[in-house]
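Purpose: get a first structural picture of the assembly so the mutagenesis plan has something to point at.
Setup: two entries, given in the order below. No constraints added.
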Amino acid sequence: MATVNPTLIASQVVGSGGAASVTFSSIPNTYTDLLISLSTRNDTSSSNTMYIALNGSTSSFTFKQLFGDGGAAHSGSGSTNEIGVSNSAAYTASTFSNTSIYIPNYTSSNYKSISVDTVVENNATTSYALFYASLWSNTAAVTSVSFTLTSGNFAQYSTAYLYGIKNS
Amino acid sequence: MADVIEVNCTTNEVTIRPQTAEEIAAAEAAAAQAAADKAAADAAEKAKADAKAAAIAKLTALGLTADEVAALTA
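Result (structure tokens, whole complex):
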């Protein structure tokens, strides 16, 4: 892994109307890795899964995951662009999830690995903490990153920060 | 209808606009697929649990003690 010297490329705070998606586009190719920090909450209580699109693509993703739900430890796998969890509106008021996404060598012509550490905040027995090891089987350099939810919108004050990391 | 937010990392321009019909349709399709995937995963997990319970019942019927069954299934 590169020396961690993140440089903030861009950030966004969701406004009062909420947002169905947040996209960072035209990402410069001058870094080695990308680091994304998300603090999010949904405006619905029906779902809390978050999804990623790279260069607008939601296909060719696979993942392995380890997670706890407050009751037991689990593992799983899938072939979707699932990337983490986001606090639902049913969770403790004014709390937000935290998600860290690391994409090394995002400009390379190899498939892109994605490492994710995500946790929701909920003052209840049921809560979630997950690790994902994901792969985007696409050789294109990453120039845009988007985030969406299964349903509903990102609530006001959700934040997204995109950092670039150089190995020199 | 919520907006979509796009931050251009080169120009720092922020575009906030309503979702297009295509984006709404894509989101709805993704939500349906996610629900189907979850249902399939839940069904697979239940089938695995049912198979384990059936195996334990058969082992018990063969005369294994609870400790012996636990040693095999741990």
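Chain B has two helices and two strands.
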